[in-house]
């Protein structure tokens, strides 16, 4: 399915203080397309999860927020790009309760359940890119 | 005088000041006159240093004095509410005035160019310093505010004998959780409370890290022999937490602070009874 990008912006994330402004930006995108409170909360929670991963494992990186449309519905797409060490075993990382850090191990699998589209690409030594899309009524 | 092209400026200090003041006024600055005192002080010190030291402006001790002075001026201007633009304009106009005076004094183009080049190098460097001072002044204010916010944002309230409540507003990150946990545990000891209510109505989103922090806080309170209730879980937060797969079943959670208080009363075997109206 082809999607059209209506609006786009980039943000650099290097420290924990960048998380809250980014989340607010993502929320604004959701509000603009008329997303329900529930979907907004799911989207910002997913963003928050991934941006924490970006900081913790990727050592910071870039986040792209897009307002997208597939013709029938509008949505928000967020892409997280880091140049960290990458994920050795994506399948394992996507399993509930697995964590290389001391966290609950719910970040990646939980995020996948919160959004409509979830795509992860990672190369050892070359960083990780995660793209999530949340449709307005998804 | 070959090696001190800029030294000649000292002899024309008054003229320079007049031009400078005029440029400042033309540039829309209202108080060209008000700051005349400090401007005079700066100009005279700067020019005398230029006249005294030959060529080695950057390293001389006197030059440090000039820099201290201009840094002081710009930070005081910052505090008095000048905009960054006005702050930058201050030195730029000084440079302009110097150039004007120089072009009248030095006839040979080569020497004039040379003098201007040196002047630019010195004043540009100063401009960077004043800008840094200006920014630092602002940053000091911000970091003071951050400290203040994190201090006042974790008030532990004794709502009843033996019950403390802690409303959390804003994002829970690691450092914040630490403060929250510390003040909560301390308050439990101080008041001898056996029930703590953590109200998260003001937390915009609960992700796995926040949940983990909450679970840790609850475990710590339990270790202290107190029971912890989490209240203020909004419907959308509840659904998000379920989708994320976070297990909060081991924790007593309530939708509102009122129902948490009610549960706390039950735990303490207290009852709120409506008083009977006494009819005479």
Automatic annotation (TrEMBL), chain A:
One of its GO terms (molecular function) is protein serine/threonine kinase activity. The keyword Kinase applies. Residues 38-138 form the Histidine kinase/HSP90-like ATPase domain. InterPro entries: HATPase_C_sf, HATPase_dom. Its EC number is 2.7.11.1. It comes from the Bacteria. The keyword Zinc does not apply. Signal peptide: none annotated. CDD domains: HATPase_RsbT-like. Keywords: Kinase, Transferase. SMART domains: HATPase_c. This is Serine/threonine-protein kinase RsbT. It comes from Flavobacterium anhuiense.
TrEMBL record, chain B:
Keywords: Phosphoprotein. Pfam families: STAS. PROSITE patterns: STAS. Residues 153-264 form the STAS domain. The keyword Heme does not apply. It comes from the Bacteria. This is RsbT co-antagonist protein RsbR. The lineage of its organism: Bacteria, Pseudomonadati, Bacteroidota, Flavobacteriia, Flavobacteriales. The gene is rsbRA.
């Amino acid at each position: 399915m082809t999607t059209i990008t209506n609006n786009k912006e980039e943000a650099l994330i290097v420290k924990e203080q960048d998380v809250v402004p980014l989340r607010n930006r993502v929320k604004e995108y959701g509000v603009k397309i008329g997303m329900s409170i529930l979907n907004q909360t799911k989207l910002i929670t997913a963003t928050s999860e991934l941006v924490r991963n970006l900081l913790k494992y990727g050592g910071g990186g870039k986040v792209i927020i897009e307002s997208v449309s597939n013709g029938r519905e509008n949505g928000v797409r967020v892409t997280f790009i880091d140049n960290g060490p990458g994920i050795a075993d994506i399948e394992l990382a996507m399993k509930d309760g697995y964590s290389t850090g001391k966290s609950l191990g719910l970040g990646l699998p939980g995020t996948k359940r919160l959004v409509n589209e979830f795509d992860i690409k990672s190369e050892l030594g070359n960083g990780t890119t995660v793209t999530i899309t949340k449709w307005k009524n998804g | 005088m070959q090696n001190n092209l800029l030294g000649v400026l000292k002899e024309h200090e008054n003229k320079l000041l007049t031009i400078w003041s005029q440029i400042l006024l033309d540039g829309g600055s209202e108080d060209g006159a008000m700051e005349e005192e400090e401007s005079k002080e700066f100009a005279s010190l700067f020019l005398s240093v230029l006249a005294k030291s030959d060529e080695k402006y950057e390293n001389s001790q006197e030059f440090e004095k000039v820099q201290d002075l201009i840094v002081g001026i710009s930070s005081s201007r910052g505090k008095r509410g000048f905009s960054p633009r006005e702050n930058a304009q201050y030195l730029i106009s000084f440079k302009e005035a110097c150039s004007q005076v120089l072009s009248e004094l030095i006839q040979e183009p080569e020497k004039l160019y040379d003098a201007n080049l040196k002047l630019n190098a010195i004043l540009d460097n100063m401009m960077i310093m004043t800008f840094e001072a200006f920014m630092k002044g602002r940053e000091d204010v911000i970091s003071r505010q951050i400290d203040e916010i994190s201090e006042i944002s974790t008030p532990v309230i004794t709502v009843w004998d033996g019950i403390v409540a802690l409303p959390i507003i804003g994002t829970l990150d690691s450092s914040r959780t630490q403060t929250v946990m510390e003040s909560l545990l301390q308050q439990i000891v101080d008041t001898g409370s056996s029930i703590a209510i953590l109200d998260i109505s003001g937390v915009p989103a609960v992700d796995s890290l926040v949940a983990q922090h909450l679970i840790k806080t609850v475990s710590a309170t339990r270790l202290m022999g107190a029971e912890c209730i989490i209240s203020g879980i909004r419907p959308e937060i509840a659904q998000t937490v379920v989708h994320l797969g976070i297990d909060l079943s081991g924790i007593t959670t309530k939708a509102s602070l009122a129902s948490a208080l009610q549960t706390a009363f039950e735990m303490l075997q207290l009852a709120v009874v409506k008083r009977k109206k006494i009819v005479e």
